[in-house]
Amino acid sequence: MSFLRELSILDLSSLFQTPFLENSNLTMLLQNLTLLEELYIDGVNLTIRGNEWGQALSSSLSNLRVLSMESYSFSSPIDESLCKLQSLSMIKLDSNNLSSPVPKCFMNFSNLTSLSLTDCALNGTFPKEIFQIPTLKILDISENDLLDGSFPEFPQNSNIQTLETSSTNFRGTIPASIGNLQQLSTLELSVCHYSGTLPKSMTNLTQLVFLRLFGNNFTGSIPSFHMPKNLTEIHLSFNRFTGPLPSAAYWQGLLNLVYVDLTNNTITGSIPSSLFSLPSVQWIDLSYNQFSGRLLEFQIPPSSVLASVDLRGNELEGLIPKSFFKLKNLGDLLLSFNKFNGTFQLDRFNTSGNNSNFSSLTLFTSVKLASCNLRTFPEMLRNQLVLSLLDLSNNQISGKIPNWIWKVGNGSLFFLNLSRNHLVGMHKLYPLPNLQTIDLSFNQLHGKIPVPSNDYHVDFSSNCFTASIPLDIGNYLSNVRSNNGLTRIIPESICNTSSLKALDLSNNSLSGQIPTCMFALSGPTRLNLARNNLSGPIPDAFPVNCSLETLMETY
């Protein structure tokens, strides 16, 4: 192959295997290919010592324009000899262990259009001058957590389309000159140490499609990105943004917006209802901010694809809009930890009767209505056929747990949280094939403790059960927590389960001796029998492979 002296493109990349190419073979292969312009060796394991790979390239390939050697091809630093390749326009060295700084001489590549060095263990300080190369269109140096740097002033003639520095040590502010990047479509600066306010000039980035700035220390208000009509994603979570959102009219113009994530900021004011009416939006997460006021009803476009709405941890009040329950594709509605009132209106969405207002039923996969002042079980849950997660905790629901709650999801329910209500009773725990966790703690349940017929985690703690522990309870549970007024002894059946991971029977009135077999179990990681009336010795029966991490003594 080395005698193909007029070869201009060589692609030895491998997608499914990892062939080897020794250094001596690389030098021999390239030494005569002086007209080569494009070289692709992605996914090939180069058994190269030190800086010899760079020397092998620079000594022969003076006309090289494209260099692509990604996916764990080698583990050696970038050699300064690469700076001889002045014709380079594309450099792609992703996912190699370079463990070196980026050479300053890269700023001298006058034809450079694409530089991609993601996940390369880069260190040192990134040369600012590279940002200012007039021909540069793509710059991706993400996933290099030892790489320091900050932004320079961007020139007016910049052609940058993609700018990614996520998961690096970059810091400082975004300069107002970022507005000069008129061709910018992707701005990915997530999980860095940027700070300060977003410059108003960012609103002039008319070609912006992806905006990802999450996990930084940005402050101030969010600019009105009304100019980029093709904006698809706004991801600004885990910052320190304050102030209200842009006006409702601003959101109406973002017809291509799919993803909005502003969680964990300090944004105030009301939530514009027009945000829920966008025809392309699928995911809206405004949780854990300081939004207040009422949620207004909103228009639903015929083509709505909204699938997830998360408004938890705010100060929203009033009624939950009926519009949410007309969204045919909405699977997750998370409204916990707000100040809603009058949520009995949810009962109106029961379609089991003759309700002419709703021609079809919204099928949820996740419903979180914790801390929403609910007083009854929402009847609209009866007809949920695919619900897998239901959280009604920390409300004011009273009375008995209705039997129909076990039929919610048609067998798909795997998490049920009814804790911190005023529930007083239940008929029994019905078998649910996919249930993994049920939390009934901090209620007023009394009478005989129910025995489940499936193997899952169950929390009965802080109720009013006064009966003895069922003798066969150990045949069913993998985790149990029951801090009540339980009396009598711990049954021997507690040792029958091979999948027991945690047992908490503290704060009861149990008496007698602890079954010896309990100390011979190898599976549990937590055992708590504190504050009972147990007696007798603790035998030396712990197995060699005991996985116990927490042992609360009885006293």
Rg over CA atoms: 31 Å
Topology, number of strands: 42
- Secondary-structure-based class equals mainly beta
Percentage of β-strand residues: 15-25%
* Main beta-sheet strand count, sense and barrel state: 23 strands, parallel
Enumerate the spans where pLDDT stays under 50 for 5 or more consecutive residues: 343-360
Q: What's the CATH architecture of the domain at 1-113 and 120-133?
A: Alpha-Beta Horseshoe
CATH topology of the domain at 1-113 and 120-133: Leucine-rich repeat, LRR (right-handed beta-alpha superhelix)
Treating each run of at least 4 consecutive H or I residues as one helix, how many helices?
3
The CATH homologous superfamily name of the domain at 1-113 and 120-133 equals: Ribonuclease Inhibitor
**Overall 3D form:** globular
The level of helicity is: under 10%
Question: For the terminal residues, how far apart are their CA atoms?
Answer: 81 Å
What is the typical, i.e. mean, pLDDT? 85
Identify the CATH class of the domain at 1-113 and 120-133.
Alpha Beta
